[in-house]
Amino acid sequence: MAAAALLAAAGCAQAKPAAPDRFAASPWRKLSMSDWKERLSPAAFKVLREEDTERPRSSPLNGEKRAGVYACAGCELPMFRSEAKFESGTGWPSFTRAIRENMATKPDGLFLLARTEYHCARCEGHQGHLFDDGPKPLGKRWCNNGLALKFIPA
After folding, report:
1. How far apart (Å, rounded) are the C-alpha atoms in residues 73 and 65?
2. What is the pLDDT of residues 85-128, one digit of tens each?
3. Distance, CA of 134 to CA of 97 (rounded, Å)
C-alpha cells in the first residue's frame, strides 16, 4: 500500500498550506499520475508522488556547497536558500529554515512517531520531514530527500 493510502487509513490530515492556498488553481495540481511518471525519473516519482524516502547518503546534493536555491524537483518552486543548508550527519540534505510560503505541512503518524511532513505548496510533491533537533538559534531541521530537489546555482 502506498504511503499516502496508509496515511489516509490512519486518519492523517491532507497537506494544508501554512498560508492561504495561493496555488489552489495551479496547473501542476491537475497533472495525473501518468503525467508525473512521464516527467520524473522512477526514483523521483516514488519520493515526490508516493511519499517514499531515498536511501541516506545517496544524494549528490549532500555535498553541494555553492550559493543558490534548492527548488522542488517537480515544479521548480524554491524551497530553500543555500545559506540555510547545514551538515546534519543524517545522510539527507538538511536546512535550518525553509521558504515557508512555499511549503505545506501535515502530521505524519505512519510509524507511530509524531512527525511533521512537508510538501511543495504548488505541486504537492513530498519533500521530507521537519524535526526539532536542528542547530541553534532556530532548532529546526528540514530533512529533505535529495531526489525531491533541484539545485539552481546563483
Report:
1. 18
2. 999 999 999 999 999 999 999 887 665 667 899 999 999 999 99
3. 10
The 3-class SS string of 10-74 reads: CCCCCCEECCCCCCCCCHHHHCCHHHHHHHCCHHHHHHHHHCCCCCCCCCHHHHCCCCEEEEECC
| Residue carrying the nine cell digits 535550518 | 96
CB 108 within 8 A of CB 126: no
**Percent share of the chain, pLDDT over 70:** 84
**What is the value of pTM for the model shown?**
0.83
Which residues belong to the active site?
143
Tell me the one-letter amino acid at 68.
Answer: G
Question: Which DSSP helix (H) or strand (E) runs through 80?
Answer: strand 78-81
Q: How far apart are CA 73 and CA 47, in angstroms?
A: 10
CA-nearest of 20, 15, 86 to 51 is 15
